[in-house]
Write a structure and sequence with these properties.
globular, 4 helices, alpha/beta
Length: 140
């Protein structure tokens, strides 16, 4: 009997913050059991630098990650697809190829206001919330 890794896809609008963080956390903390991917419905040009900084603080480097489109995934199959922002859940109510799908909404840290330290604090809070919730879901 084969113990294949299950496949999870994290979907957000731009694939520049939340879904990139979720993918990296899943790979880092549950990579033995899960193969993680992320994509966006309208991918941005680059991963947000504050997301890179927030992840680096917990020992995960996403500096080389690139936003990807859900459409570019083609007909890949996933055991689980998780939408991470409310607009994506509305725009993309069903991810093709996903055996199971759920929505975990997180605020968009890119909308944070204030100085660099205040904005980074928002990224940290979103990162920590994503980490807690996706690990709980992946461990179910």
């Amino acid at each position: 009997m084969t113990n294949r890794k299950r496949r999870v896809l994290f979907v957000c609008t731009g694939n520049t913050c939340r879904s990139q963080m979720a993918e990296a956390i899943a790979r880092h903390e549950r990579g033995a059991a899960w193969e993680a991917f992320s994509a966006g419905t309208i991918p941005g040009e680059r991963v947000n630098p504050l997301a890179v900084r927030a992840m680096r603080e917990i020992g995960i480097d996403i500096s080389q990650a690139q936003p990807k489109s859900v459409a570019a995934l083609g007909a890949q199959a996933f055991d689980l697809a998780i939408t991470l922002c409310d607009s994506t859940a509305e725009l993309c109510p069903r991810v093709d190829g996903a055996a199971r799908q759920l929505h975990l909404g997180f605020p968009d840290p890119a909308e944070a206001r204030g100085n660099d330290a205040e904005r980074l604090a928002v990224y940290r809070a979103v990162r920590d919330a994503i980490r807690a919730q996706i690990i709980a879901v992946l461990d179910e």
